[in-house]
Design goal:
The complex is a heterodimer of chains A (378) and B (152).
Chain A: E1 4-11, H1 22-37, E2 46-50, H2 53-56, H3 61-64, H4 66-69, E3 75-79, H5 83-95, E4 101-109, H6 115-120, H7 135-150, H8 154-167, H9 182-187, E5 190-192, E6 195-196, E7 205-214, E8 226-235, H10 249-262, H11 267-270, E9 273-275, H12 283-291, H13 299-305, H14 331-344, E10 357-364, E11 370-377
Parallel strand pairs in A: 2-3, 2-4, 9-10
Antiparallel strand pairs in A: 1-7, 1-8, 4-7, 5-6, 8-11, 10-11
Helix pairs in contact in A: 5-14, 10-12, 12-13
Chain B: H1 26-39, E1 42-46, E2 53-54, E3 70-74, E4 77-86, E5 99-106, E6 113-117, E7 130-135, E8 146-151
Antiparallel strand pairs in B: 1-2, 1-3, 4-5, 4-7, 5-6, 7-8
Classes of the chains: A alpha/beta (378), B mainly beta (152).
The complex binds zinc ion.
The site of zinc ion (ZN) has 7 residues of chain B, from loops.
Amino acid sequence: MEKVAIVGVGQTTYERRKEDTFDELVFEAATKALADAGGEIGDIDNIVTVSNDFWDGRTISSMAVQDAAGSWDKDISTVEGDGTFGVLYGMMRALSGSFETTLVVSHIKGSEAVMNLITNAMFDPIFHRSLGVDATSSAALQARMYMEKVKATQEDVALVSVKNHKNAMNNPHAQLPMEIGVDDVMKSKMLADPLKLLDCSPISDGAAAVVLATEKGAKRFKKSPVWIKGVGHISDAYTLGYRDLANSRALDAAAKKAYKMAGVKNPLKDLDVVELYDAYSYMEPLWYEGLGIAKEGKGVELLKSGTTAMDGDLPVNPSGGVISAHPVLVAGMTRIVESVLQLRGEAEKRQVKGAKTALAHGINGACGQSHCVFVMGV
Amino acid sequence: MAEWLDKVENVYFEGRIKVPYKWYVGEVGSRFLVALRDKKELWGTKCPKCNKVYVPPQKNCGECFVPADTWVQVKDTGTLESFTVVNYSHSMQPDKPPLMYGLIKLDGADGSMLHLIGGAAPKDLKVGMRVKAVFREKREGNILDISHFAPE
Ligand SMILES: [Zn+2]
Protein backbone atom coordinates (compact mmCIF):
# COMPACT_ATOMS: atom_id res chain seq x y z
CA MET A 1 0.00 0.00 0.00
CA GLU A 2 1.05 3.59 -0.61
CA LYS A 3 2.71 5.19 2.40
CA VAL A 4 2.60 8.79 3.55
CA ALA A 5 5.49 10.62 5.17
CA ILE A 6 5.99 13.89 6.95
CA VAL A 7 8.88 15.60 5.19
CA GLY A 8 8.69 19.08 6.68
CA VAL A 9 7.49 20.72 9.89
CA GLY A 10 7.20 24.33 11.00
CA GLN A 11 5.86 26.14 14.03
CA THR A 12 5.80 29.60 15.49
CA THR A 13 6.47 30.27 19.13
CA TYR A 14 3.28 30.07 21.18
CA GLU A 15 2.46 33.18 23.18
CA ARG A 16 -0.44 34.79 25.00
CA ARG A 17 -0.58 37.69 22.55
CA LYS A 18 1.32 37.57 19.29
CA GLU A 19 1.62 40.76 17.34
CA ASP A 20 1.13 39.01 14.00
CA THR A 21 -2.00 38.77 11.89
CA PHE A 22 -3.61 35.41 11.02
CA ASP A 23 -1.91 35.65 7.61
CA GLU A 24 1.49 36.35 9.11
CA LEU A 25 1.22 33.37 11.45
CA VAL A 26 0.15 31.04 8.64
CA PHE A 27 2.89 32.33 6.32
CA GLU A 28 5.55 31.89 9.00
CA ALA A 29 4.57 28.29 9.76
CA ALA A 30 4.11 27.35 6.08
CA THR A 31 7.43 28.79 4.91
CA LYS A 32 9.26 27.22 7.87
CA ALA A 33 7.80 23.80 7.00
CA LEU A 34 8.79 24.15 3.34
CA ALA A 35 12.30 25.32 4.23
CA ASP A 36 12.59 22.43 6.71
CA ALA A 37 11.58 19.99 3.97
CA GLY A 38 14.15 21.50 1.61
CA GLY A 39 11.54 22.42 -0.96
CA GLU A 40 9.38 25.30 -2.09
CA ILE A 41 5.72 26.06 -2.67
CA GLY A 42 5.98 24.80 -6.27
CA ASP A 43 6.60 21.32 -4.86
CA ILE A 44 3.18 21.30 -3.20
CA ASP A 45 0.14 19.87 -5.02
CA ASN A 46 -2.62 21.00 -2.66
CA ILE A 47 -3.27 22.76 0.63
CA VAL A 48 -5.34 21.90 3.69
CA THR A 49 -6.02 24.62 6.24
CA VAL A 50 -7.26 23.95 9.75
CA SER A 51 -9.55 26.74 10.80
CA ASN A 52 -12.70 27.58 12.72
CA ASP A 53 -15.07 30.39 11.85
CA PHE A 54 -15.97 31.21 15.46
CA TRP A 55 -12.32 31.62 16.45
CA ASP A 56 -11.49 33.65 13.32
CA GLY A 57 -14.58 35.87 13.53
CA ARG A 58 -15.51 35.34 9.90
CA THR A 59 -17.22 32.65 7.88
CA ILE A 60 -15.39 30.33 5.49
CA SER A 61 -12.21 31.38 7.28
CA SER A 62 -10.10 28.86 5.36
CA MET A 63 -10.50 30.83 2.17
CA ALA A 64 -9.41 33.99 3.95
CA VAL A 65 -5.94 32.62 4.75
CA GLN A 66 -5.37 31.00 1.37
CA ASP A 67 -2.86 33.56 0.13
CA ALA A 68 -0.72 33.08 3.21
CA ALA A 69 -0.97 29.30 2.82
CA GLY A 70 0.38 29.41 -0.72
CA SER A 71 -2.66 28.03 -2.50
CA TRP A 72 -2.78 30.22 -5.60
CA ASP A 73 -3.32 27.91 -8.60
CA LYS A 74 -3.83 24.96 -6.29
CA ASP A 75 -6.70 23.23 -4.56
CA ILE A 76 -7.41 24.26 -0.97
CA SER A 77 -9.82 22.66 1.48
CA THR A 78 -10.49 22.89 5.18
CA VAL A 79 -10.80 20.87 8.32
CA GLU A 80 -12.58 22.53 11.21
CA GLY A 81 -11.18 20.91 14.30
CA ASP A 82 -7.89 19.93 15.85
CA GLY A 83 -4.74 19.93 13.70
CA THR A 84 -4.35 16.15 13.93
CA PHE A 85 -7.59 15.80 11.98
CA GLY A 86 -6.20 18.23 9.37
CA VAL A 87 -3.13 16.05 8.96
CA LEU A 88 -5.40 12.99 8.78
CA TYR A 89 -7.37 14.60 5.97
CA GLY A 90 -4.18 15.63 4.18
CA MET A 91 -2.98 12.05 4.46
CA MET A 92 -6.26 10.79 2.96
CA ARG A 93 -5.88 13.20 0.06
CA ALA A 94 -2.46 11.71 -0.60
CA LEU A 95 -3.75 8.13 -0.31
CA SER A 96 -6.57 8.90 -2.72
CA GLY A 97 -3.91 9.13 -5.40
CA SER A 98 -4.96 12.62 -6.39
CA PHE A 99 -2.00 14.44 -4.85
CA GLU A 100 1.60 13.44 -4.15
CA THR A 101 2.33 16.32 -1.76
CA THR A 102 0.14 18.29 0.65
CA LEU A 103 0.81 21.26 2.90
CA VAL A 104 -1.35 21.36 6.04
CA VAL A 105 -1.42 24.60 8.05
CA SER A 106 -3.24 25.56 11.21
CA HIS A 107 -3.52 28.84 13.09
CA ILE A 108 -5.20 30.45 16.09
CA LYS A 109 -5.26 33.72 17.95
CA GLY A 110 -7.00 32.77 21.14
CA SER A 111 -6.07 36.15 22.59
CA GLU A 112 -8.33 37.99 20.16
CA ALA A 113 -11.53 36.09 20.86
CA VAL A 114 -13.37 35.23 24.07
CA MET A 115 -12.58 31.64 25.07
CA ASN A 116 -15.57 31.17 27.36
CA LEU A 117 -18.08 32.40 24.78
CA ILE A 118 -16.65 30.38 21.93
CA THR A 119 -16.35 27.15 23.87
CA ASN A 120 -19.87 27.73 25.25
CA ALA A 121 -20.98 27.72 21.61
CA MET A 122 -19.70 24.17 21.09
CA PHE A 123 -22.63 22.94 23.19
CA ASP A 124 -26.07 22.40 21.72
CA PRO A 125 -28.07 25.62 21.71
CA ILE A 126 -31.37 24.15 22.95
CA PHE A 127 -30.53 22.19 26.08
CA HIS A 128 -27.03 23.19 27.16
CA ARG A 129 -25.77 26.52 25.90
CA SER A 130 -28.11 28.63 28.02
CA LEU A 131 -26.74 26.96 31.16
CA GLY A 132 -23.50 28.86 30.50
CA VAL A 133 -21.24 25.79 30.47
CA ASP A 134 -17.89 26.09 28.64
CA ALA A 135 -14.64 24.17 28.06
CA THR A 136 -13.34 24.59 31.59
CA SER A 137 -16.58 23.93 33.48
CA SER A 138 -17.32 20.82 31.41
CA ALA A 139 -13.76 19.61 31.90
CA ALA A 140 -14.24 20.07 35.65
CA LEU A 141 -17.23 17.70 35.54
CA GLN A 142 -15.08 15.15 33.72
CA ALA A 143 -12.17 15.71 36.11
CA ARG A 144 -14.32 14.98 39.15
CA MET A 145 -15.89 11.92 37.56
CA TYR A 146 -12.47 10.52 36.67
CA MET A 147 -10.83 11.39 39.98
CA GLU A 148 -13.70 9.85 41.97
CA LYS A 149 -13.52 6.69 39.87
CA VAL A 150 -9.79 6.14 40.30
CA LYS A 151 -9.64 7.70 43.79
CA ALA A 152 -7.12 10.33 42.71
CA THR A 153 -6.49 13.44 44.75
CA GLN A 154 -6.00 16.97 43.42
CA GLU A 155 -2.34 16.64 44.44
CA ASP A 156 -2.03 13.51 42.29
CA VAL A 157 -3.20 15.13 39.06
CA ALA A 158 -1.23 18.31 39.86
CA LEU A 159 1.87 16.20 39.10
CA VAL A 160 1.03 16.53 35.40
CA SER A 161 1.23 20.30 35.65
CA VAL A 162 4.53 20.06 37.54
CA LYS A 163 6.07 17.58 35.07
CA ASN A 164 4.94 19.25 31.86
CA HIS A 165 5.64 22.86 32.81
CA LYS A 166 9.15 21.74 33.77
CA ASN A 167 9.59 19.93 30.45
CA ALA A 168 8.53 23.16 28.73
CA MET A 169 11.71 24.79 30.04
CA ASN A 170 13.55 22.79 27.37
CA ASN A 171 11.23 23.99 24.60
CA PRO A 172 11.87 27.45 23.11
CA HIS A 173 8.39 27.43 21.50
CA ALA A 174 6.44 26.84 24.72
CA GLN A 175 4.45 29.59 26.37
CA LEU A 176 4.67 28.60 30.04
CA PRO A 177 8.05 27.12 30.93
CA MET A 178 7.97 26.94 34.72
CA GLU A 179 9.57 25.12 37.59
CA ILE A 180 6.67 24.67 39.99
CA GLY A 181 5.68 22.27 42.72
CA VAL A 182 2.41 20.57 43.65
CA ASP A 183 1.95 23.32 46.28
CA ASP A 184 1.93 26.00 43.59
CA VAL A 185 -0.80 24.17 41.69
CA MET A 186 -2.81 23.71 44.88
CA LYS A 187 -2.45 27.38 45.81
CA SER A 188 -3.46 28.69 42.36
CA LYS A 189 -6.93 30.13 41.97
CA MET A 190 -9.80 27.63 41.95
CA LEU A 191 -11.54 28.20 38.60
CA ALA A 192 -14.01 25.32 38.43
CA ASP A 193 -13.66 22.89 41.29
CA PRO A 194 -11.53 20.66 41.18
CA LEU A 195 -9.65 22.54 38.44
CA LYS A 196 -7.31 25.30 39.52
CA LEU A 197 -5.56 27.80 37.26
CA LEU A 198 -2.41 25.66 37.02
CA ASP A 199 -4.48 22.58 36.14
CA CYS A 200 -5.65 24.43 33.03
CA SER A 201 -3.92 25.23 29.76
CA PRO A 202 -3.44 28.89 28.82
CA ILE A 203 -4.98 30.97 26.05
CA SER A 204 -2.47 30.99 23.22
CA ASP A 205 -1.68 32.34 19.76
CA GLY A 206 0.37 30.53 17.14
CA ALA A 207 0.51 28.42 14.01
CA ALA A 208 2.01 25.17 12.77
CA ALA A 209 2.42 23.43 9.44
CA VAL A 210 3.48 20.07 8.05
CA VAL A 211 4.43 18.91 4.56
CA LEU A 212 3.04 15.47 3.69
CA ALA A 213 4.28 13.36 0.80
CA THR A 214 3.72 9.95 -0.71
CA GLU A 215 6.80 7.81 -1.43
CA LYS A 216 6.98 9.36 -4.89
CA GLY A 217 6.26 12.89 -3.66
CA ALA A 218 8.95 12.60 -0.98
CA LYS A 219 11.58 12.52 -3.72
CA ARG A 220 10.87 16.21 -4.40
CA PHE A 221 12.33 17.14 -1.03
CA LYS A 222 15.77 16.95 0.53
CA LYS A 223 14.71 15.97 4.07
CA SER A 224 14.56 12.28 4.96
CA PRO A 225 10.97 11.27 5.61
CA VAL A 226 9.30 10.37 8.89
CA TRP A 227 6.66 7.76 8.02
CA ILE A 228 3.13 7.64 9.32
CA LYS A 229 2.95 4.00 10.42
CA GLY A 230 -0.52 3.91 11.87
CA VAL A 231 -3.51 6.15 12.43
CA GLY A 232 -6.81 5.80 14.26
CA HIS A 233 -9.67 8.23 14.80
CA ILE A 234 -12.90 7.59 16.71
CA SER A 235 -15.56 9.78 18.29
CA ASP A 236 -18.05 9.30 21.11
CA ALA A 237 -21.49 10.81 21.85
CA TYR A 238 -21.91 14.60 21.54
CA THR A 239 -24.01 15.04 24.67
CA LEU A 240 -21.85 14.91 27.81
CA GLY A 241 -24.42 13.01 29.84
CA TYR A 242 -24.69 10.26 27.22
CA ARG A 243 -20.98 9.49 27.51
CA ASP A 244 -18.99 7.81 30.29
CA LEU A 245 -16.70 10.76 30.87
CA ALA A 246 -14.36 8.75 33.10
CA ASN A 247 -13.71 6.09 30.46
CA SER A 248 -12.07 7.03 27.20
CA ARG A 249 -13.53 4.34 24.99
CA ALA A 250 -13.12 6.46 21.84
CA LEU A 251 -9.40 6.91 22.49
CA ASP A 252 -9.06 3.24 23.33
CA ALA A 253 -10.59 2.30 19.97
CA ALA A 254 -8.59 4.90 18.04
CA ALA A 255 -5.31 3.82 19.62
CA LYS A 256 -6.00 0.13 18.95
CA LYS A 257 -6.58 0.90 15.26
CA ALA A 258 -3.36 2.87 15.03
CA TYR A 259 -1.37 0.19 16.89
CA LYS A 260 -2.69 -2.58 14.67
CA MET A 261 -1.69 -0.66 11.56
CA ALA A 262 1.73 0.19 12.97
CA GLY A 263 2.44 -3.25 14.44
CA VAL A 264 2.59 -1.92 17.98
CA LYS A 265 1.93 -4.86 20.31
CA ASN A 266 2.79 -3.38 23.70
CA PRO A 267 2.50 0.41 23.55
CA LEU A 268 4.35 0.96 26.84
CA LYS A 269 7.35 -0.94 25.46
CA ASP A 270 7.11 -0.27 21.74
CA LEU A 271 6.65 3.50 21.90
CA ASP A 272 9.66 5.69 22.73
CA VAL A 273 7.92 9.04 23.17
CA VAL A 274 4.32 10.28 23.40
CA GLU A 275 2.94 13.77 22.79
CA LEU A 276 -0.65 13.91 24.01
CA TYR A 277 -3.38 16.53 24.35
CA ASP A 278 -3.30 17.53 28.05
CA ALA A 279 -5.61 20.55 27.89
CA TYR A 280 -6.21 20.00 31.64
CA SER A 281 -3.96 18.14 34.06
CA TYR A 282 -6.37 15.25 34.76
CA MET A 283 -6.53 14.49 31.03
CA GLU A 284 -3.01 13.08 30.88
CA PRO A 285 -3.61 10.06 33.18
CA LEU A 286 -7.07 9.55 31.64
CA TRP A 287 -5.56 9.47 28.16
CA TYR A 288 -2.80 7.07 29.39
CA GLU A 289 -5.62 4.63 29.99
CA GLY A 290 -7.15 5.25 26.58
CA LEU A 291 -3.77 4.83 24.92
CA GLY A 292 -3.30 1.51 26.72
CA ILE A 293 -0.02 2.54 28.35
CA ALA A 294 -1.85 2.17 31.67
CA LYS A 295 -4.66 -0.26 32.49
CA GLU A 296 -8.12 1.20 33.11
CA GLY A 297 -8.09 3.07 36.42
CA LYS A 298 -4.29 2.97 36.67
CA GLY A 299 -3.33 6.20 34.86
CA VAL A 300 -2.48 8.07 38.03
CA GLU A 301 -0.34 5.15 39.21
CA LEU A 302 1.68 5.32 36.00
CA LEU A 303 2.10 9.07 36.42
CA LYS A 304 3.30 8.70 40.01
CA SER A 305 5.72 5.92 39.06
CA GLY A 306 7.78 8.39 37.02
CA THR A 307 7.57 6.20 33.92
CA THR A 308 6.32 9.14 31.83
CA ALA A 309 8.84 11.67 33.18
CA MET A 310 11.66 12.93 30.98
CA ASP A 311 14.01 10.29 32.45
CA GLY A 312 11.38 7.54 32.57
CA ASP A 313 10.87 4.59 30.21
CA LEU A 314 8.24 6.40 28.14
CA PRO A 315 8.50 10.20 28.33
CA VAL A 316 5.13 11.88 27.74
CA ASN A 317 5.02 15.49 26.55
CA PRO A 318 8.73 16.35 26.55
CA SER A 319 7.66 19.56 24.78
CA GLY A 320 5.69 20.66 27.83
CA GLY A 321 2.41 19.56 26.31
CA VAL A 322 -0.79 21.48 25.75
CA ILE A 323 -0.88 22.65 29.38
CA SER A 324 2.24 24.72 28.56
CA ALA A 325 0.77 26.24 25.36
CA HIS A 326 -2.74 25.70 24.04
CA PRO A 327 -3.16 27.05 20.55
CA VAL A 328 -6.63 25.58 19.92
CA LEU A 329 -6.84 23.91 16.45
CA VAL A 330 -3.02 23.97 16.26
CA ALA A 331 -2.22 22.01 19.42
CA GLY A 332 -2.63 18.51 17.94
CA MET A 333 -0.50 19.44 14.94
CA THR A 334 2.12 20.68 17.40
CA ARG A 335 2.14 17.18 18.91
CA ILE A 336 2.92 15.81 15.42
CA VAL A 337 5.61 18.45 14.81
CA GLU A 338 7.25 17.63 18.14
CA SER A 339 7.10 13.89 17.44
CA VAL A 340 8.77 14.39 14.06
CA LEU A 341 11.57 16.43 15.67
CA GLN A 342 12.04 13.65 18.25
CA LEU A 343 12.27 10.96 15.56
CA ARG A 344 14.82 12.96 13.59
CA GLY A 345 16.90 13.56 16.71
CA GLU A 346 16.35 17.31 16.29
CA ALA A 347 14.48 18.00 19.52
CA GLU A 348 17.54 19.64 21.10
CA LYS A 349 17.29 19.99 24.89
CA ARG A 350 13.99 18.09 25.01
CA GLN A 351 15.29 15.17 22.91
CA VAL A 352 14.40 11.66 24.07
CA LYS A 353 17.53 9.64 23.34
CA GLY A 354 17.26 7.23 20.45
CA ALA A 355 13.51 7.74 19.84
CA LYS A 356 12.46 5.42 16.99
CA THR A 357 8.67 5.28 17.42
CA ALA A 358 6.51 8.22 18.50
CA LEU A 359 2.82 8.73 19.18
CA ALA A 360 0.97 12.03 18.64
CA HIS A 361 -2.58 12.53 19.90
CA GLY A 362 -5.25 15.14 19.27
CA ILE A 363 -8.78 15.72 20.55
CA ASN A 364 -11.84 17.45 19.19
CA GLY A 365 -15.05 18.51 20.94
CA ALA A 366 -15.81 18.97 24.63
CA CYS A 367 -14.01 16.66 27.09
CA GLY A 368 -12.30 14.67 24.34
CA GLN A 369 -15.40 13.69 22.36
CA SER A 370 -13.21 12.66 19.45
CA HIS A 371 -9.64 11.40 19.30
CA CYS A 372 -7.00 11.09 16.60
CA VAL A 373 -3.85 9.01 17.12
CA PHE A 374 -0.77 8.92 14.91
CA VAL A 375 2.07 6.43 15.28
CA MET A 376 5.18 7.56 13.43
CA GLY A 377 8.62 6.16 12.80
CA VAL A 378 11.70 6.64 10.67
CA MET B 1 8.87 40.88 18.90
CA ALA B 2 10.06 42.47 15.67
CA GLU B 3 12.11 45.65 16.09
CA TRP B 4 9.90 47.78 13.89
CA LEU B 5 7.04 47.23 16.32
CA ASP B 6 8.76 49.64 18.73
CA LYS B 7 8.49 52.40 16.18
CA VAL B 8 4.85 52.11 15.14
CA GLU B 9 1.59 52.26 16.97
CA ASN B 10 -0.24 48.91 17.01
CA VAL B 11 -3.81 49.26 15.86
CA TYR B 12 -6.56 46.87 16.94
CA PHE B 13 -9.93 46.73 15.32
CA GLU B 14 -12.86 45.92 17.59
CA GLY B 15 -15.33 43.53 16.02
CA ARG B 16 -18.75 42.71 17.33
CA ILE B 17 -20.52 40.10 15.28
CA LYS B 18 -24.19 39.79 16.09
CA VAL B 19 -25.94 37.23 13.97
CA PRO B 20 -29.43 36.36 15.20
CA TYR B 21 -30.57 32.76 14.93
CA LYS B 22 -33.65 30.84 15.81
CA TRP B 23 -33.48 27.08 16.11
CA TYR B 24 -36.42 24.78 15.51
CA VAL B 25 -36.37 22.54 18.55
CA GLY B 26 -37.84 19.64 16.60
CA GLU B 27 -40.82 17.43 17.23
CA VAL B 28 -39.12 15.52 20.03
CA GLY B 29 -37.60 18.57 21.70
CA SER B 30 -40.88 20.47 21.47
CA ARG B 31 -42.78 17.68 23.20
CA PHE B 32 -40.17 17.59 25.95
CA LEU B 33 -40.19 21.34 26.54
CA VAL B 34 -43.98 21.68 26.41
CA ALA B 35 -44.39 18.95 29.05
CA LEU B 36 -41.79 20.73 31.18
CA ARG B 37 -43.56 24.07 30.80
CA ASP B 38 -47.18 22.98 31.16
CA LYS B 39 -47.02 20.00 33.52
CA LYS B 40 -43.59 20.13 35.18
CA GLU B 41 -43.05 16.66 33.77
CA LEU B 42 -39.83 15.16 32.46
CA TRP B 43 -40.08 12.84 29.49
CA GLY B 44 -37.45 10.84 27.66
CA THR B 45 -37.27 8.69 24.57
CA LYS B 46 -36.41 4.99 24.75
CA CYS B 47 -34.29 3.04 22.28
CA PRO B 48 -35.99 -0.24 21.31
CA LYS B 49 -32.64 -1.94 20.85
CA CYS B 50 -30.51 -1.05 23.90
CA ASN B 51 -33.46 0.15 26.05
CA LYS B 52 -31.63 3.34 27.03
CA VAL B 53 -33.89 6.22 28.02
CA TYR B 54 -32.55 9.55 26.80
CA VAL B 55 -33.35 12.74 28.74
CA PRO B 56 -33.31 15.30 27.15
CA PRO B 57 -34.87 13.13 24.44
CA GLN B 58 -33.10 12.12 21.25
CA LYS B 59 -35.03 11.23 18.14
CA ASN B 60 -32.64 8.36 17.47
CA CYS B 61 -30.19 6.35 19.55
CA GLY B 62 -26.71 7.46 18.54
CA GLU B 63 -25.21 4.13 19.50
CA CYS B 64 -27.73 1.75 17.88
CA PHE B 65 -28.64 4.13 15.06
CA VAL B 66 -32.33 3.31 15.18
CA PRO B 67 -35.29 5.58 16.04
CA ALA B 68 -35.81 5.96 19.79
CA ASP B 69 -39.55 6.15 19.35
CA THR B 70 -41.11 5.24 22.71
CA TRP B 71 -41.86 8.05 25.16
CA VAL B 72 -41.17 7.32 28.82
CA GLN B 73 -41.86 9.62 31.73
CA VAL B 74 -39.00 9.82 34.21
CA LYS B 75 -38.89 11.21 37.74
CA ASP B 76 -37.81 14.71 38.63
CA THR B 77 -35.45 13.21 41.20
CA GLY B 78 -32.04 11.74 40.60
CA THR B 79 -28.47 11.12 41.70
CA LEU B 80 -25.59 13.53 41.30
CA GLU B 81 -22.91 11.79 39.18
CA SER B 82 -20.50 14.71 39.05
CA PHE B 83 -20.46 18.40 39.88
CA THR B 84 -18.34 21.51 39.70
CA VAL B 85 -18.39 24.92 41.33
CA VAL B 86 -17.48 27.64 38.85
CA ASN B 87 -15.83 30.67 40.40
CA TYR B 88 -15.37 32.88 37.35
CA SER B 89 -18.00 35.13 35.93
CA HIS B 90 -19.11 35.62 32.35
CA SER B 91 -22.04 37.31 30.62
CA MET B 92 -23.16 34.02 29.03
CA GLN B 93 -23.77 32.48 32.46
CA PRO B 94 -27.36 32.51 33.75
CA ASP B 95 -26.34 33.64 37.24
CA LYS B 96 -23.51 35.10 39.31
CA PRO B 97 -20.69 32.85 40.56
CA PRO B 98 -20.24 30.64 42.43
CA LEU B 99 -22.25 28.62 39.93
CA MET B 100 -22.81 24.96 40.61
CA TYR B 101 -23.26 22.49 37.77
CA GLY B 102 -24.14 18.85 38.00
CA LEU B 103 -24.54 15.77 35.87
CA ILE B 104 -27.74 14.28 37.21
CA LYS B 105 -28.87 10.72 36.56
CA LEU B 106 -32.64 11.04 36.75
CA ASP B 107 -34.59 8.13 38.21
CA GLY B 108 -35.79 6.14 35.24
CA ALA B 109 -33.32 7.63 32.76
CA ASP B 110 -30.00 6.36 31.45
CA GLY B 111 -27.01 8.63 31.11
CA SER B 112 -27.30 11.94 32.89
CA MET B 113 -28.54 15.45 32.38
CA LEU B 114 -26.42 18.56 32.71
CA HIS B 115 -28.00 21.29 34.80
CA LEU B 116 -27.47 23.84 37.54
CA ILE B 117 -27.40 22.87 41.20
CA GLY B 118 -28.85 25.18 43.84
CA GLY B 119 -30.23 25.29 47.37
CA ALA B 120 -26.99 23.93 48.80
CA ALA B 121 -23.63 25.31 49.86
CA PRO B 122 -20.80 24.37 47.46
CA LYS B 123 -19.02 22.50 50.27
CA ASP B 124 -22.04 20.26 50.84
CA LEU B 125 -22.10 18.85 47.30
CA LYS B 126 -21.16 15.17 47.06
CA VAL B 127 -21.12 12.67 44.24
CA GLY B 128 -23.98 10.27 44.83
CA MET B 129 -26.21 12.76 46.64
CA ARG B 130 -29.92 12.81 45.85
CA VAL B 131 -31.34 15.87 44.10
CA LYS B 132 -34.75 17.04 42.91
CA ALA B 133 -35.77 19.47 40.18
CA VAL B 134 -36.95 22.91 41.27
CA PHE B 135 -39.26 24.40 38.66
CA ARG B 136 -39.63 28.08 37.93
CA GLU B 137 -42.93 29.76 38.72
CA LYS B 138 -43.11 31.36 35.29
CA ARG B 139 -42.12 28.78 32.71
CA GLU B 140 -41.39 29.62 29.07
CA GLY B 141 -40.68 26.31 27.36
CA ASN B 142 -36.91 26.12 27.69
CA ILE B 143 -34.43 24.14 29.74
CA LEU B 144 -34.28 26.89 32.39
CA ASP B 145 -37.92 26.13 33.24
CA ILE B 146 -36.07 23.90 35.67
CA SER B 147 -34.42 26.59 37.75
CA HIS B 148 -31.94 24.08 39.21
CA PHE B 149 -31.69 20.80 41.04
CA ALA B 150 -31.63 21.01 44.85
CA PRO B 151 -30.81 18.40 47.51
CA GLU B 152 -33.85 16.17 47.97
ZN1 LIG C 1 -29.83 2.15 21.49
